[in-house]
Amino acid sequence: MTGLTLVAHALTPALRGLVLGGDAEPDPASVEAARELKFTADAVYAGPERAAVRTAAALGLEDPAVEPALRDREYGEWTGRGLEELLEEDPQRVSAWLERPHTATPGGETENDVLTRVADWLGDLVERHDERTSVVAVVHPAVVRAVVLYAVDAPAESLRHVKVRPLASVHLSHHSGNWSLAFGSIS
User: Fold this and answer.
1) pLDDT at residue 1 in the model
2) Which is deepest, 72, 75, 107, 125, by most CB within 10 Å?
3) How far apart are CA 8 and CA 142, in angstroms?
4) Distances from the Cα of 160 to the Cα of 61, 146, 154, 170, angstroms
5) Taking a C-beta distance cutoff of 8 angstroms, is the pair 51, 9 a contact?
6) Which residues of the chain have pLDDT under 70?
7) From edge to edge, which strands make up the β-sheet containing 178-181?
8) pLDDT, position 184
9) Which residues have a Cβ under 8 Å from the Cβ of 158 and sit 6 or more positions away?
10) Per-residue pLDDT, 41
11) How many CA atoms lie within 13 A of 53 on its CB side?
12) What's this model's pTM, rounded to 2 decimal places?
């Protein structure tokens, strides 16, 4: 059985301020809090964001394989812009995007695109590692949500019902072709 622990990266100003996408520096206090957490793994991955790579280092997970498939959702023209700003500028378009998960931001990805991307990565992960490998991946909270939905076979519409805070972790196991949430302590 392959074990996968996903860790949401440290808090960033973008997460705090509801800014879409970008590659902000992680909050120093959140990175310091990560130093208190302990994870071990046979293989370590990180999303390409600075916050993911720096959180992995703070966790003591040296030299993670930086994986582009584990990046935050692509927001296209809205990258780096605050949700409140966008709502003031174009409330109908933003409201439609928020209400319909199959809608992409201008030049961005839909929630289904993110689910497909992480599902492909999970398939590759199983092919790359044997059954007894423990893996830790430090990623954007949006990626954690997408993996959870994929594991429980939930539709993209459910993405907004899964809250993931910075430094939260979730454990999954892979057995007989399926991923499952794995509650409890890991060994």
Assistant:
1) 63
2) 72
3) 8
4) 29, 10, 12, 17
5) yes
6) 1, 184-187
7) 65-66, 43-46, 134-139, 2-8, 169-175, 178-181
8) 67
9) 149
10) 94
11) 12
12) 0.93
